[in-house]
Amino acid sequence: MDRLTERLYAYRSNRQARLAQVYRVTCDVVLGDRSFVTTLATRWERTTEIGERAHFDRCRSLEWLIPIPDHVIYIDAPTAELRRRVELRGRRYGIRDESVTRLQEVRCAYEAIRRSSLPELAPITWHF
């Protein structure tokens, strides 16, 4: 992923996290379809070059406001179904991240994150 796109996503995520902090005072649960774990997963290929710790720290430096979730509900679907849903949206941005290869890589990345020995990720409860 190029650095401009990465920084754009980080800006957007931090902005949304700042808004969520306002509501956290009045509610016990915040649900979302993306989290810091999503950020780790979409860029997980970096770990082969720089390792899990450096990857985690880099993502954290960009998205410092997004809390690490207490729970991750992982909903999986066959790759063909995911591609069908992507096509129905008709979007033209983010196409690289939604190719068949990337969808399969991200599936593997979520599993690697779940098995990670990083202490920051250990408290997450995973639901499949």
What does this structure look like?
With 128 residues, the protein is mainly alpha-helical. It has helices at residues 3-24, 36-42, 47-62, 79-89, 100-115, and strands at residues 71-73, 125-127. Helix 2 packs across helix 5 (100-115). Strands 1-2 form a two-stranded parallel sheet. It starts with a helix and ends with a strand. The protein contains five helices and two strands, in the order αααβααβ. Helix content is 56%, strand content 5%. The protein is globular. The mean pLDDT is 86.
Features:
128 residues; mainly alpha; two-stranded parallel ribbon
**Mean pLDDT over the residues:** 86
Can you give the helix content as a percent range? 55-70%
Q: Based on helices, strands and strand pairing, what is the structural class?
A: mainly alpha
Largest beta-sheet characterization: 2 strands, parallel
Give the distance, in angstroms, between the N- and C-terminal Cα atoms. Answer: 28 Å
DSSP strand count:
2
Number of helices: 5
Shape: globular
Write the H/E string, N to C: HHHEHHE
Strand content: under 5%
Low-confidence parts: none
Radius of gyration: 15 Å
Strand arrangement in the largest pleated sheet: 1-2
